[in-house]
């Protein structure tokens, strides 16, 4: 009653004859149908409301039905916009009856989320008020059935709401409303050795391109990766579209980089909704990735001096669990596993996405997911080794992004300020300087080559699905070129 009285004072409840069709009123919200969206009636705002917008369940786990939920939320949003409305995320905080014989009187604070379509003249405060009125339309002790869920007390007590905690409203937009021309999807692997940061830095230096990145994160942006709703908020879209790292270049093609985009299905789905967006992948030999993971492990085992620790051979780590001790810490590595884990003495664990990239089947599965999300003509895949091939490669990439050639005097091979990790070449030099180390190292590489031969062949086939100008120059023989590299000749300089 109080909510309706306040609404009447603000003009939310008015006779039909005095209502603007776009006014934020109960009549406009429900006109043309029933509370249950009778299919025999004409479309109404209420019938275009009610879809959940949250991606995660209990704030932690992504819902198993997130793809279908995203599709239905976007469909409802588009229908609402075509109908002349604005789409809102309404979140309610309600105090539920939680009284029992043991603990006495008490109430539990719960939250519920709804996607709501309201007339175009609704402000944020009016949307909150309109939701409060219609929510209790079926009676004082239950929400209206259109909203699907009503608050429950303990199952052995009556359903009763003590009082409202809060109702919050935020207008939503579409992913296609974002101003974005290109994105570096991954794979950045293991401590800055994957090439994506070098690529991002060089593209940002192009006079027609700009990279949007966080102040605190080197060359990266997390906007698409950590969203917890199926649609972006209007305010978030406005902030993103207003961001610039080259204020003097208003016409620069805007891009973002995050090495984990290609690893996350939800991020790929959001990016794929942006019309005309061009994606870039940097692929790397899985054997090379696992070798880098092993050398990072060696660095941790050796510490700064690198002189007093027994380090397991690559041959041992390539076939099973290996470990080393340093200062009382026991660190373990399993290369051919779904995740790389370093366990310290205090039982904490560190996971390296770089070694995950090298796991059997992983890279080809993520390339396949990216090919499903992006049309082939909108995807560019580079071999990491091409980044050092000079202007021919970089001009080809710039042309794919719709830009002209790089300036002739620009140095495109520098890795300055890209990675703060110690170089892996030093760890390899230390390791191979030991007596009889080369044979174990070469044997480990041969074992990795054998275990990942099928993956290399599958990745080569995927590269050949793209138009020639959007694939590595050696796509036709990619896996054969990798197989011709003999590790014992390359690293140990054996005859």
Overview of the molecule:
The structure is a single chain. By secondary structure, the protein is an alpha/beta fold. It folds into two domains: 2-172, no CATH class; 176-286 and 359-492, Rossmann fold, CATH 3.40.50. 33% of the residues lie in helices and 17% in strands.
Task: Summarize the SSE layout with pairings.
Blueprint: H1 2-9, H2 26-30, E1 56-57, E2 61-62, H3 66-82, E3 85-97, E4 107-119, H4 124-135, E5 161-171, E6 182-186, H5 196-205, E7 209-211, H6 234-242, E8 253-257, H7 265-272, E9 278-283, H8 286-302, H9 314-317, E10 322-326, E11 329-333, E12 340-343, E13 349-352, H10 353-358, H11 362-373, E14 379-383, H12 391-400, H13 424-432, H14 437-451, H15 453-463, H16 478-483, H17 487-492
Helix pairs in contact: 8-13, 11-15
Provide the descriptors you would attach to this structure in a database record.
globular; 14 strands; five-stranded parallel beta sheet; 2 domains; 17 helices; 495 residues; alpha/beta; Rossmann fold; three-stranded antiparallel beta sheet
């Amino acid at each position: 009653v109080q909510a309706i009285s306040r609404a009447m004072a603000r003009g939310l409840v008015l006779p039909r004859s005095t209502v603007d069709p776009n006014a934020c009123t109960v009549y406009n919200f429900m006109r043309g149908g029933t509370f249950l969206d009778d299919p025999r009636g004409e479309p109404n705002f209420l019938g275009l409301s009610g879809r959940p917008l949250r991606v995660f369940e209990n704030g932690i786990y992504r819902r198993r039905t997130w793809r279908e939920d995203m599709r239905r939320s976007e469909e409802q949003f588009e229908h609402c916009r075509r109908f002349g409305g604005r789409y809102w995320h309404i979140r309610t905080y309600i105090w539920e009856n939680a009284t029992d014989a043991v603990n006495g009187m008490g109430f539990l604070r719960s939250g519920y989320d709804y996607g709501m379509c309201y007339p175009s003249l609704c402000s944020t405060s009016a949307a909150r008020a309109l939701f409060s009125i219609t929510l209790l339309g079926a009676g004082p002790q239950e929400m209206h059935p259109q909203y699907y869920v009503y608050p429950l007390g303990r199952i052995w007590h009556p359903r009763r709401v003590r009082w409202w905690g809060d109702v919050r409203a935020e207008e939503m937009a579409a992913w296609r409303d974002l101003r974005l021309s290109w994105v570096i999807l991954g794979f950045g692997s293991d401590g800055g050795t994957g090439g994506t940061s070098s690529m991002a830095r060089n593209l940002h230096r192009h006079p027609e391109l700009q990279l949007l990145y966080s102040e605190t994160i080197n060359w990266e942006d997390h906007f698409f990766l950590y969203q917890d709703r199926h649609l972006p908020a209007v305010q978030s879209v406005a902030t993103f579209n207003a961001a610039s790292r080259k204020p003097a270049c208003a016409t620069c093609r805007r891009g973002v980089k995050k090495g984990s985009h290609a690893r996350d299905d939800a991020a790929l789905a959001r990016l794929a909704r942006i019309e005309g967006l061009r994606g870039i992948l940097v692929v790397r030999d899985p054997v090379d990735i696992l070798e880098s993971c092993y050398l990072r492990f060696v660095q941790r085992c050796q510490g700064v001096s690198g002189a007093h620790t027994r380090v397991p051979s690559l041959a041992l780590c390539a076939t099973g669990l290996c470990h080393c001790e340093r200062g009382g810490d026991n660190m373990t590595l399993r290369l051919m596993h779904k995740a790389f884990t370093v366990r310290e003495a205090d039982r904490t664990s560190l996971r390296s996405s770089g070694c995950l990239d090298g796991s059997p089947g992983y890279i080809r599965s993520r390339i396949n997911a990216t090919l499903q999300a992006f049309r082939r003509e909108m995807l560019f895949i580079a071999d990491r080794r091409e980044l050092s091939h000079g202007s021919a490669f970089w001009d080809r990439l710039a042309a794919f992004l719709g830009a002209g050639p790089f300036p002739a005097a620009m140095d495109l091979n520098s890795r300055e300020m890209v990675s703060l990790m110690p170089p892996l070449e030093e760890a390899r030099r230390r390791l191979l300087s030991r007596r009889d180390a080369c044979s174990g190292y070469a044997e480990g590489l041969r074992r990795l080559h054998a275990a990942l031969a099928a993956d290399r062949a599958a990745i080569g086939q995927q590269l050949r699905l793209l138009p020639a100008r959007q694939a590595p120059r050696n796509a036709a023989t990619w896996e054969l070129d990798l197989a011709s590299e003999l590790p014992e000749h390359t690293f140990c300089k054996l005859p």
